[in-house]
């Protein structure tokens, strides 16, 4: 910047407000007024003012919900929910906080904050001044120019023309042209259907602007694109008016009134004191009664003086800072210094090192913290001596110097529980479970870490199905850095040592780097949530699920060990009988569990058709092969399939459950994985309780072993046909909607309509066929697939599918729309706006592309169902508490929730659960939850 060049800083107030509100848990003043957003906003603004100099500064706010754009297009931003009730009273306090800092507040009725930012940027730069807009909002990128830049408030990095081009594929002056074509689902800007950002950029690069493109639309070669541009030309013009910022909006305050100045003496301190923000007072150096006075000879364009915060050195704010070296903290004074710095910074990445992957039994070995990129430490807590030191003639070697566990945790606890310090973790559920248990001898309770952000879930909310969400993979993908591996520090195989015996220097390099990477990922990924349309998914669902699942895992479910043993004996006996039958059918004994020996029997000796050898030369005998042979009437493969099912159930559930039964409480505690599936569904491991067969006799037997505690019953609540309801909702099929609204048997109704049978005369076979196709359609089932399921010819199956689509044309149209959406964008959206990325949708391999198309059809239904039950889960604990009920939610298995309920509260709990589950989403058809109860899980169904 030229010396003494005026510099206007315009802060997007809405961005700060919602970041603060969603980052912090509920907080109230002594008089009960909510202040979490005020607290976060005040801290962020104060922190910003210490780092950035400007001659002029203002915070710009939206005046109200409706603006002149609603006159142009009534549905503009119409789908956005009203602000949460607990946020509304904080708006005025946030403006008061801004004024207390001596910063101007700008807003104007009938205009958005973005319009005022555009108007001030235009007026200020016209006089030769530089403008910095503190926001990463893509709508403001149209303002970027030689004198105007954006500053990302999270990454503290400028956004100039190259960054705009990377985002939109055009220069800033063409951004509105691209947005007019692509639309914006966040603001309900319609755009042109079927045209995304990439296509819009290509079109604008070729034709120059929107009007030239629309005038040439008839000449475009691609038929669908040409048709959309012709039919939706006026919609595109309206969209352009919506996205174009009004740089000629009236200025609500003269530019001279925006001069940067110090806070009035005592005003800022008084405001903080009135809100009860003692930690902010200390952080701002305002523990006394008055504000620090400005220097007597401040230069005209100096940064606002008088706000004395403990700002980090500039080098630590650089995301390009090197990874290490890091500090090993082995004394209490140094730890207390790190804790104070973390609280002053307001954000800290945290990671734990333990002796086990089982969070409910793991012992803490150490904790790492990161305050800024490259600034991280490791606090060893339970490291022993290096292995191989000392001998029989010498005294046992001593452990390395480290802070006693109880003292270290006591020093960390205030910061970890401080509502004003955001803790950033990767896979937070694990660390919260470890720290939530008493780790030190004599401690009465663990540490309640809050508030938290989880980089794994931030990534998953945006990129489910796109890639994995492990820290190492995300680091390499987003930071270009490959972190140290666990094997590098502990060794492998027989040479592996426990982490507690790793040398502190090496342990620090590994553990502190994890915290450093987590912090850098958060700074990079968190701002993307809003621009990627994933903020609501993360804030309202995924982040809230952490605490819900933590409580469920800690509760566990009781297992009857005696019944389990009986089931194991029964399965063993039946397997022995089946083995004898298999040997008789084969004509000789062999190892039934050996795929190689089975293949030789089936294809070499029995000469059964359809055998295929693998790369190693052995015959394939997987489930698909055995199912095909069974369908052809061969008894041996059918009997082997039954034996395999019993063998799997016995090893996985009978023996597996017995091994995982916690002797302390007689319960098993499954681990819910939150970021594995491509559809948003949870998965269950150690043990996996989601794959127990529901309809088989053996599955029912296993569920009988899951029992209620004395004086309690198990309550099962299952969403009824939720994916079919989502199909009726998305495809908007009138007859299906009517059937669900009237609580009709949907499969009988379908059979009646596609097979032209009178409603009262649908038999079991017709209903079975209708049920198969109803569910098969959701999975993109082909005629060959339906034929195999129903045991009919492919021609007959094709006729059934054609009749189905003829009766319900909206379903075929919806399926084609989903495939097209996936091809254009690479993802499909659930009914709630969550992106589900579809791998292979553009593959040249026909088989892979076909699988991807089927995934694109199914993903919104599975993903929508997952989102609905998650929304029910995050609301459930509060609903039960508010009703004064003691029920505990124990399990989630796909569309089912399982509760343990005191017997005297069964009726009230059932009512509360049903009400929550049926009211979490508004669809075109009603949601229905079916409830059952009993002494064990099988009886509850």
Describe what you observe in this structure.
The protein is α/β, with parallel strands linked by helices and 941 residues long. The chain has four domains: 251 residues, Rossmann fold (3-Layer(aba) Sandwich); 239 residues, Ribonuclease H-like superfamily/Ribonuclease H (Nucleotidyltransferase, domain 5, 2-Layer Sandwich), CATH 3.30.420.10; 110 residues, Taq DNA Polymerase, Chain T, domain 4, CATH 1.20.1060.10; 142 residues, Orthogonal Bundle (DNA polymerase, domain 1), CATH 1.10.150. The chain is 47% helix and 11% strand. The strands form six sheets. The chain has a six-stranded mixed beta sheet with strand order 3-2-1-4-5-6. A six-stranded mixed beta sheet has the order 7-10-9-8-11-12, with helices on both faces. α22 packs across α35 and α35 crosses α36. The protein is globular and about 95 Å long. The N and C termini lie far apart (71 Å). The relative contact order is 0.06.
Q: So what's the oligomer here? A: single chain
What percent of residues adopt helix (DSSP H or I)? 40-55%
Structural class, judged by helices and strands?
A: alpha/beta
CATH architecture of the largest domain: 3-Layer(aba) Sandwich
The CATH class of the largest domain, by name, is Alpha Beta
Enumerate how many helices there are, as a single number: 36
Lateral arrangement of strands in the main beta sheet: 3-2-1-4-5-6
* Rg over C-alpha atoms, rounded to the nearest angstrom: 32 Å
Q: What is the terminal separation in angstroms? A: 71 Å
CATH superfamily of the largest domain: 5'-nuclease
Number of strands: 23
Biggest β-sheet description: 6 strands, mixed
Give the number of domains: 4
Per CATH, what is the topology of the largest domain? Rossmann fold
- Runs in which pLDDT lies below 50 for 5 or more consecutive residues are 289-318, 390-396
Mean pLDDT: 87
Residues in β-strands, percent: 5-15%
Global outline:
globular
